[in-house]
Amino acid sequence: MERYFMKMPEDMFCEICSEKRGINPETLKEVIILAVEIAREGREGRRIGTMFVVADSENVIKHSRPLILDPLLGHPAEVKQINDPDMRETVKELAQLDGAFIVSDDGTVVSACRYLDSFSEGIDLPLGLGSRHMAAASITKVTNSVAVVVSESSVVRIIDNGEIVSEIIPELWMFKRYSALSKGKMVEQEIILSTVED
Question: In Å, what is the CA distance from 61 to each residue of 82, 84, 188?
Answer without folding.
Answer: 18, 23, 39
